[in-house]
Amino acid sequence: MKKILANDGIDAVGKKILQDSGFTVITDKVAQDNLADYINSNSIEVLTVRSATKVRKDIIDSCINLKLVVRGGVGIDNIDAEYAKEKGLKVANTPAASSDSVAELVIASMFSMCRFLYDSNRKMPISGALDFNELKKKYSGGKELKGKTLGIIGIGRIGQAVASRALGLGMKVVAHDPFVENTTIKIELDGVGLINIPVKTIPLGEVLAFSDYITVHVPGGSLIDKSEIAQMKNGVCLINTSRGGVINEMALIEGLNSGKIAHAALDVFENEPTPKSELLSHPKISLTPHIGAATDEAQERIGLELANIIISFFKE
Predict the structure, then answer these.
(1) Calpha distance 26→35 (Å, rounded)
(2) Looking at 176, 290, 301, 305, which residue is catalytic?
(3) Fewer Cβ atoms within 10 A, N terminus or C terminus of the chain?
(4) 157 in catalytic set
(5) At 188, is the pLDDT very low, low, confident or very high (cuts 50, 70, 90)?
(6) What pTM, to 2 d.p., does this model score?
């Protein structure tokens, strides 16, 4: 019986499918330093991970019986995928499963920023009873999303899911993606059907200059620094649900402190799981602990896709 270590967990539906197909699924959480020994001593052939577990060269070199590594999520930056390929170790991921959940977090973050929800939810429990009228005045300058321009950097699955929701809210959408010239945003409305809206990508500088809100959906790297922030509108709002470091965190703080950036929403951080204290305490940042895909629906889709990938791999 082939053994799977789901080191960062797996949805119950996916686990059951795998067990019914004859696999042993182990959901013990093994510490990174002990991972190679555990895989070898328990004859693990498949390792599934999310973002917490890293599969670097040391694991690949040490675990010669490991045949397949699957990342439950979009990117594979926590896996040395090219090196694994050289060593004959198959690497896969589940890029489509969490798109809707991440997109909805982006929209929720924009609502949170434009109506000061993240800050009022901090202040009301502390001083709402004593300073109600002062807080009401403080948060009275909210904005509507309708009519505002959303700039999407990276118009892949998640970027398109964000665009469909933003268009549904009456926002204007501009996009930049060096790998996509044109795309079609699909909006499905109950009782109406599918509406297709063509979107042409534009240069990054134009997205930065035209957008009231900017959301980033790229697999990693350094994309937004001081020079890019300088090109943005005054009072812009930034959202990062992709990877920590895509937006330079110190440049972001500088932009927030100067007023160039009105608000930011961060779900990912450079040095997870210990984000910078300057970010955690900043009054203009809406914070979530990397929960973009943390919905019941996304986890079930990820579990199903993981199961299908693993079953198909051993049928080949």
Answers:
(1) 13
(2) 290
(3) C
(4) no
(5) confident
(6) 0.91
282 is a catalytic site residue? no
Contacts of residue 17, defined as CB under 8 A and 6 or more positions apart, other chains included, come to 303, 304, 307, 311
Q: Which domain holds residue 57?
A: 3-95+296-315
Q: What's the pLDDT tens digit per position in 111-155?
A: 999 999 999 999 999 999 999 999 999 999 999 999 999 999 999
Both 79 and 106 in one domain: the answer is no
Assign residue 189 the CATH number of its domain: 3.40.50.720
Pair (85, 18) in one structural domain = yes
Which of 50, 165, 243, 301 is an active site residue? 243
Active site residue 290: yes
For residue 13 the two structure tokens come to 């539906």
Residues 79 and 146 in one domain: no
Q: Are 237 and 261 contacting, i.e. CB atoms less than 8 angstroms apart?
A: yes
Residue among 82, 134, 144, 272 flagged as catalytic: 272
